[in-house]
Amino acid sequence: MTEKSLNEYLKDIDKDDIIIADSSIGVKYRDNTKFYKFPVIESSKEAVGSNISASMVALGVISGIIKEIDKENIKKSIIKRVPKGTEKLNITALKKELVF
């Protein structure tokens, strides 16, 4: 989720790949890619009070863009894998961007 990492890996992107970037970073992208910018970090802060769950917000964005992803399976996986006691926080962050 940094400009440096995005620009570093951009050279490996194919035309059918999807790029999702936080809207707060500057991005150089090619016109032939599927490129989406979302306020991932800001949304995490709004949802849970910090950017600690930004990856869950990004997962919500991805599952909103790729309709074939089963959102219930994502929720189940999160509940199984996140540290005990953080399940609700992470699901809240995930749901922040499941509105697509």
Overview features:
100 residues, mainly alpha, Pyruvate-ferredoxin Oxidoreductase, domain 3, 49% helix
At the third CATH level, what is the topology name?
Pyruvate-ferredoxin Oxidoreductase, domain 3
Low-pLDDT residue intervals, each spanning 5 or more residues: none
CATH class: Alpha Beta
Tally of contiguous helical segments:
5
Q: Please state the overall shape, judged from the principal axes of the Cα atoms.
A: globular
Q: First CA to last CA: what distance?
A: 21 Å
Q: Tell me the major beta sheet.
A: 2 strands, parallel
Strand order of the largest sheet: 1-2
CATH architecture identity: 3-Layer(aba) Sandwich
If you average the pLDDT, what whole number results? 84
**What string, H for helix and E for strand, traces the elements in order?**
HEEHHHH
- What would you report as the Rg, rounded to the nearest angstrom? 14 Å
Strand content: 5-15%
Number of strands: 2
Percent helix range: 40-55%
Count of distinct structural domains: 1
Secondary structure layout plus pairing:
Elements: H1 3-9, E1 18-22, E2 34-38, H2 40-48, H3 54-65, H4 71-81, H5 87-96
Parallel strand pairs: 1-2
